[in-house]
Amino acid sequence: MKIAFKDKRLIINLILGIVWIIVGVSYFPEGENTRFAPYFTIVLGVAYLCMSAYEYYNQYLTITGEKIQINTFPKKQMTISEITKSGYYADDYTFKTPEKTLKVRKSQICTRDLPKFEAFFNDLKLKLNSADIS
Predict the structure, then answer these.
(1) pLDDT at site 48
(2) Which of 61, 102, 112, 129 has the most Cβ atoms closer than 10 angstroms to its Cβ?
(3) 37-58 vs 7-26: helix axis angle to the nearest 10?
(4) Distance between CA 40 and CA 38 in Å, rounded?
């Protein structure tokens, strides 16, 4: 199951990339003292465009039968079978193993994918609670 980033984040990164490229290109007609500023702003714009494309194609969160993976830089992943505790607090879903903690921000999840993720989270929480009782 793939959970997407919010569209707002993708659109903002796309707009920032285009604006930075336009600002960088606008330095060239002046012709004087074009040292590093135009090149730096163009590179910054391309970086924003690349980041927007990466987030669009890789999505925010990937959940398989074995693991949960957050597709940010660097990628963070956790094996589902090792999860000992899960919780929700302050707009963050938290998954814990004995070695690490993984936080999934609700504010980053696309609203159309949020019910799928909440169903997965509630199912996992029920499994963990029944395992604690047994």
Answers:
(1) 95
(2) 61
(3) 160
(4) 5
Question: How many Cβ atoms are within 10 Å of 94's Cβ, its own excluded?
Answer: 14
pLDDT at 133 over 70: no
Q: Contact 121/83 with Cβ under 8 angstroms? A: no
* Structural tokens at position 84: 């000992």
Q: Is the peptide bond before 74 cis (omega within 30 degrees of 0)?
A: yes
Tokens linked to 67: 């693991």
Tens of pLDDT, residue by residue over 32-51, are 666 787 889 999 999 999 99
Cα Rg of the chain (Å, integer): 20
